[in-house]
Design goal:
Blueprint: H1 3-9, H2 16-38, E1 47-49, H3 50-61, E2 64-72, E3 75-81, E4 87-93, E5 97-104
Antiparallel strand pairs: 1-5, 2-3, 3-4, 4-5
Length: 118
């Protein structure tokens, strides 16, 4: 967990689920702000039909859908990851167009200990 998020949640009696929701909500907000403030649109060369994007990352990087969430009623975000640690983050609109917005390596699942009463 990053230092900023650790400081924000430190001392709060939050379950793993609530911490995960906080983290994904913050990520979605940051991505939404970035997409609107930079160009307003993701560059076309990183967008294609969702089925084709999912097929591409699975064949090329062995990544499968791992987590997703709604940004708003017209856009969702989805994380693909592989067992080897590579990952791709995409946004998908209601027209089933998916755009890759980030990718990387060394994806790790953090284990956050549950506090008393959770």
């Amino acid at each position: 967990m990053s230092a900023a998020i650790a400081i924000f949640v430190k001392g709060r009696n939050m379950t793993y689920f609530h911490r995960f929701r906080l983290l994904t909500g913050a990520l979605a907000a940051i991505l939404s702000i970035h997409l609107v403030s930079s160009t307003g649109l993701v560059q076309a060369e990183s967008c294609l039909a969702y089925d084709k994007l999912a097929e591409f990352v699975e064949k090329r990087y062995l990544e499968k859908p791992f987590a997703d969430g709604l940004i708003d009623e017209k856009v969702m975000i989805q994380l693909f990851r592989s067992e080897a640690g590579s990952w791709t983050l995409a946004i998908i609109n209601t027209d089933d167009v998916a755009c890759i917005i980030a990718s990387g390596s060394h994806w790790e699942r953090s284990v956050i200990p549950l506090g008393p009463g959770t």
